[in-house]
Specification:
Layout: H1 11-32, H2 39-44, H3 51-62, H4 65-78, H5 80-95, H6 97-107, H7 114-122, H8 125-158, H9 162-210, H10 214-223, H11 234-253, H12 256-264, H13 267-281, H14 283-297, H15 302-305, H16 313-318, H17 325-362, H18 368-391, H19 396-407, H20 411-419, H21 425-450, H22 453-472, H23 489-492, H24 510-513
Helix pairs in contact: 1-9, 1-17, 3-9, 3-12, 3-13, 3-17, 4-5, 4-14, 5-11, 5-13, 6-13, 7-8, 8-9, 8-17, 8-18, 8-19, 9-14, 9-17, 9-18, 10-14, 11-22, 12-17, 17-18, 20-21, 20-22, 21-22
Subcellular location: Cell membrane
GO biological process, one term: sodium ion transport
Family: Belongs to the sodium:solute symporter (SSF) (TC 2.A.21) family.
């Protein structure tokens, strides 16, 4: 096949594709903001998200720039095995959340955040604050990773400068997200999901046709080595597959964007929303992964991709095949909207943590107007911090992977906290610390040679063993039914006499909420 000739697109078109979606999404946000008059509705959408909005919003917050571009990168680098190891764990990570979501929503129907659950579960400030720090760090990581995705595609195809991309992206997303909170995120996420599914399919079909058809592409890939079409290449699993699978599960467990939706989706729609979100996620990275095979068929070299590496293979192929401008624009919109939706979801997650676990917890008497103002303002602060880190030029990709690695220490303690009545607050904290203490040194010593796999395995094993052993030493059992007390932190604080059934009692004390011996 002939060599691809990269064609740089107009920078004006690039800016239009950054601002255009933002204007449309802002109009949507302004249209729905009238329904968001309280902090409760702002962060939890009245707990009324249905099946359609639930599925679409879950897909939109999970379909990061990683899903739309790294699927192509893994197919280009590892072939079929890379695509399988990237796609399958991604969808399963959402599906595996079903039992977690159902159990927690059943036992704590009026919750808002994972940190709030940990605080109510153990009455231990150390465990809840540690969880809060990890959750906020993970959300900032989501924002930074998706800013990196914006920089990659807009710089590669349109030649825009990183600083202009980051500043524009942050401003656009923060402005439209500010007005409606989770409701805006759900509505705009639904539109983004439609664009992701339909847009990616149209783009890939055009690209395959321009490359001579699927048969020709895969014949060329086969001619360049059997390893590209071997779905069971063990090297792929050892190099990144197993570590990625464990990391993805942890990312969902430690992502407040998902827990926020656990309490926002109507109970009857909760389980099937997570199930179908995982299933319907698959076609998006599967389709875009085919761009990596087109790159292999054309013999694209790492030198042609430049310093951006394999992650640039999708944009490189799209800008080099001689496709119509509207297809290039459509591909760009798919990536841009994936990044916007993920950043939007992360900012919404930050607002729930700030409102419930910081402001309401430490300043419970603050007025509703002040609480809502601070909650909205936290979006601006989080966006500014993430954007500032990216603009400093530090290796924020390494920073994010480090945060996620240590966030894995939450996986087993959180799971045990939800499903095991004998889990204690001391066991939770000890398990997290043990995971960090064992996994960190393994990552530093073995990581350069063997990758992150042994570090993650050591972290999870230490976390599990210590959590269980420490908890078993305390012969106590937690009554999960005690979590059902109350109507929700942000509703209880604003209960008025005109409410149909106001709760005149103050928040339960630790002694009332937790059985004797569990404190």
């Amino acid at each position: 096949m002939p060599d691809l000739e990269f064609i740089r697109q107009s920078s004006g078109l690039g800016y239009a594709l950054l601002f255009g979606p933002g204007i449309v999404l802002l109009l949507i946000a302004l249209a729905v903001k009238g329904a968001v008059r309280t902090t409760h509705n702002y962060v939890i959408s009245g707990r009324l998200l249905g099946f359609g909005f639930g599925v679409a919003s879950l897909i939109s917050v999970w379909t990061w720039s990683m899903a739309v571009m790294l699927s192509s990168a893994q197919a280009y680098t590892w072939g079929t095995s890379g695509l399988i190891w990237f796609i399958v764990p991604n969808g399963l990570a959402i599906i595996i959340m079903v039992p977690f979501a159902l159990k927690l929503r059943q036992k704590m129907p009026s919750g808002y955040t994972l940190a709030e659950f940990i605080r109510a579960r153990f009455q231990n400030s150390v465990s809840s604050v540690a969880t809060l720090v990890f959750l906020i760090g993970a959300l900032l990581g989501v924002i930074m990773i998706n800013l990196a995705g914006l920089v990659l595609v807009m710089n590669k195809i349109f030649g825009l400068t990183p600083i202009s991309i980051v500043v524009t992206g942050i401003v656009v997303v923060t402005v439209y997200s500010y007005f409606g909170g989770l409701t805006t995120s759900a509505v705009t996420g639904t539109l983004n999901t439609l664009l992701l599914g339909v847009g990616s399919s149209v783009v890939v079909l055009y690209a395959l046709a321009k490359a001579g058809g699927a048969d020709l592409v895969f014949n060329e890939v086969q001619a360049r080595g059997d390893q590209h079409l071997n779905p069971f290449n063990p090297v792929t699993a050892a190099s990144f597959g197993l570590a990625l699978a464990l990391g993805l599960l942890t990312n969902v467990i430690a992502d407040q964007s998902f827990w926020q939706r656990v309490w926002a989706i109507r109970p009857k729609d909760l389980g099937r929303s997570f199930l179908w979100a995982g299933v319907w996620f698959y076609p998006i990275p599967m389709a875009l992964g085919l761009l990596g095979f087109i790159g292999v068929a054309y013999g694209v070299t790492p030198e042609q991709l430049g310093p951006l590496g394999a992650g640039a293979i999708g944009p490189h192929v799209i800008a080099s095949l001689g496709l119509p401008v509207f297809i290039i624009a459509l591909y760009t919109l798919v990536v841009v909207n994936a990044c916007f939706a993920a950043i939007d979801g992360a900012l919404s997650g930050v607002t729930s943590l700030v409102a419930v676990d910081i402001v309401h917890r430490y300043w419970p008497k603050v007025s509703e107007r002040t609480l809502l103002t601070i909650t909205k303002g936290s979006m601006i602060v989080a966006a500014a911090i993430a954007g500032g880190v990216v603009l400093t030029g530090i290796d924020y990709v390494n920073l994010v992977t480090t945060v996620y690695f240590y966030g894995t220490s939450l996986l087993i303690p959180v799971a045990l906290s939800i499903f095991w009545s004998r889990m204690t607050g001391t066991g939770y904290v000890a398990g997290v610390l043990a995971g960090v203490a064992v996994g960190g040194p393994l990552r530093e010593t073995l990581g350069p040679t063997y990758g992150p796999l042994f570090g993650i395995i050591g972290l999870i094993a230490a976390s599990a063993i210590v959590s269980i052993v420490v908890s078993l030493r305390s012969n106590t059992r937690f009554d999960f039914d005690s979590l059902a007390d109350g109507t929700g932190a942000l509703l209880e604080r604003d209960a008025a006499p005109s409410d149909p059934d106001p709760d005149p009692d103050p928040d339960p004390t630790p002694d009332e909420r937790v059985p004797a011996g569990q404190q």
